[in-house]
Write a structure and sequence with these properties.
alpha+beta; 17 helices; Glycosyltransferase
């Protein structure tokens, strides 16, 4: 497991944010108000502090959930659809996020995090893919929400810039093989030794690295990006005949995906007979084409991905789409990868008040570890769906039993809270100790995005937990949900990032599993995916051993218990587009 370490009134709020950043957008398109099919469903036009208005509602009512999601997306869009806040207007590439003023919630002038990683790109590309779906291809409960993501013009414009940036990066640095390291979204400044700011002219995206450091490539994050591009290719392919622009973009993104297929094995597989996938591929020479040279990438840290969590995504990509032509027995190599992975799948029991559930042991049992179900069709495999349902049953039950005001997931630390990363600013080890392989640092730091797996499994319960966390002091900002907060509500992490925001939005829209499923079916890869995953889990979670895994087969998850949350009226952000109270 790789330790991770990101409408009415919309135009006004986002404009304020970008002016604070010293950035003037090139087009008003991104700032245009988003019109809803039923405007009355918004609690207060443009107000970000809407969560209290949904207290005591019936979350099993589809109309209630729809109204809540319209409120969420209309505010979250102020981040993920805003150039100069979430992505670069010139390159189309994501920023990691931005810092907020601890008192007012305003964007800090120097707070923009002008670097990013392929994991952030995976979320951006996934949302763009969902926004471009044909209405008839979308579930009815999601169709009216898509207009709150990006308009078609917005999505196509971003994708045009993004693919141009990726093509240019690949030409200049062919050793990365179409994949990305951590990168500077506007270019690297030789003057400052940092990523370029908005006050400097845009050049092109570049690796974010110290000249003295080795150039490295993270496999986990790139697995996430590879499957996001797969989903996008599926959407663009179905619409390629609608216009010359879409046809051109479809072709260019297909070429990006093919490039990644051609180079994946050379970059990330440790070599004949090893059965191991590099967590970090270190590159000797950035100018050597990864497709033509298998020895330019190596495992400098002897660090491998064999986890059954997010790291599995690159393994699936290697297995189904990788170019194994240099191996005499590619099937044996791939079988060995999965055999080694299977040894790291473990069962653990969670004892609720009236039932025992068998679940998959987590690394920390952080929600972050369930990222793979956001993007791939794992939940279409009955055994796996029941297993992940049990996991969310345990996650929500634990928070209720411990009287936590939210859920646990790896996240940036609140102000003044010392965590387990080298500088203490990032909390990786957040989870449930009895269900974790590794020691847990604390259960006092909570985050709204911790609800995303539950939203996928049971939208009613998942959204109820998300809404409860939004009701915590300072959890709702002008750019949407906050990064994290302490259990007592006294401190927050005053930043907004892709990881801690877009995961929730993607889950609310059902993820990209169905898009990836359709692509796998068309490329004859779905059976392989199902067989690999089913066999890996069945060897450990045989129903004959566990009696239906200890679950009831129901997808109804626990609602948050009714209790008074910490309250601090003075801590509410003043500039949130809301009427004064």
């Amino acid at each position: 497991m790789l330790a991770r370490i990101g409408l009415g009134g919309l135009a006004l709020v986002v404009t304020a944010a970008v002016l604070f950043l010293g950035f003037e957008p090139k087009s008003d398109t991104f700032l245009a108000p988003r019109r809803l099919s039923s405007p009355g469903s918004l609690v207060s036009d443009g107000c970000c502090q809407f969560a209290d208005h949904f207290q005591g509602v019936n979350w099993y009512d589809a109309n209630v959930r729809s109204d809540f999601l319209k409120n969420v997306l209309s505010v979250e869009r102020r981040f993920f659809a805003a150039p100069g806040a979430a992505f670069d207007a010139d390159s189309g590439m994501t920023y990691d996020g931005t810092s907020l003023d601890l008192t007012t919630g305003d964007v800090q002038p120097e707070g923009l995090r002008l670097f990013s990683a392929p994991s952030k790109e995976s979320l951006h590309i996934s949302l763009l893919a969902l926004a471009l779906q044909k209405p008839e291809d979308v579930l009815p409960e999601h169709s009216q929400l898509l207009s709150l993501l990006y308009s078609q013009d917005e999505a196509l414009d971003i994708l045009e810039k993004k693919v141009s940036s990726l093509e240019d990066f690949d030409r200049r640095f062919p050793a990365f093989g179409g994949y990305l390291p951590w990168f500077c979204s506007r270019g690297y400044s030789q003057k400052t030794g940092n990523c370029k700011g908005l006050d400097e002219s845009f050049s092109y995206i570049e690796p974010k690295t110290d000249p003295s450091e080795k150039i490295s490539l993270p496999a986990l994050d790139n697995g996430q990006m590879a499957w996001a591009i797969t989903a996008l290719v599926q959407v663009l392919g179905k619409r390629r005949d609608e216009s010359s622009q879409i046809q051109s973009l479809a072709q260019r993104w297909e070429q990006r995906l093919q490039r990644m297929k051609d180079t994946a094995v050379n970059l990330f597989y440790d070599g004949p007979g090893t059965g191991t996938v590099r967590a970090i591929a270190t590159l000797k020479d950035v100018h050597v084409d990864a497709a033509k040279n298998a020895s330019n990438a190596y495992n400098a840290e002897n660090y491998v991905l064999w986890d059954p969590f997010e790291g599995e995504m690159i393994v699936v990509f290697l297995d189904i789409f990788g170019n194994w032509s240099n191996y005499t027995d590619s099937q044996a190599e791939k079988d060995k990868i999965w055999n080694i992975k299977q040894q790291h799948v473990a069962a653990v029991e969670f004892n609720a008040s009236d039932k025992t559930f068998v679940i998959q042991q987590g690394f920390w049992f952080s929600s972050h570890e369930q990222w793979k179900i956001l993007q791939l069709p794992y939940l279409e495999i009955p055994l796996v769906r029941q297993l992940f349902t049990n996991g969310e049953m345990a996650r929500l039950t634990f928070s209720n039993e411990q009287q936590l005001n939210g859920l646990l997931a790896s996240v940036n630390a609140p102000i003044g809270f010392q965590c387990d990363s080298a500088q203490g600013y990032y909390c990786s080890a957040l989870g449930i100790q009895s269900l974790a392989e590794q020691p847990i640092w604390t259960d006092s730091v909570l985050t709204p995005y911790g609800a995303f797996p539950s939203i996928l499994i049971d939208p009613a319960a998942g959204l109820a937990w998300y809404q409860q966390m939004l009701r915590m002091p300072r959890a709702q900002t002008a750019l949407g949900s906050i990064e994290s907060f302490t259990q007592n509500g006294q401190e927050v992490a005053p930043i907004v990032t892709w990881d801690a925001k877009a995961t929730s939005v993607l889950a609310m829209l059902g993820g990209t599993g169905k898009l990836v499923r359709d692509h796998l079916q068309q490329s004859s890869g779905m059976d392989n995916f199902v067989n690999r995953v089913q066999n890996m889990y069945a060897k450990i979670f045989d129903p004959e051993l566990h009696g239906e895994l200890g679950g009831s087969g129901s997808t109804v998850l626990p609602m948050p218990s009714e209790k008074a949350l910490p309250s601090d009226p003075a801590a509410s952000y003043a500039k949130c587009g809301c009427p004064s109270r």
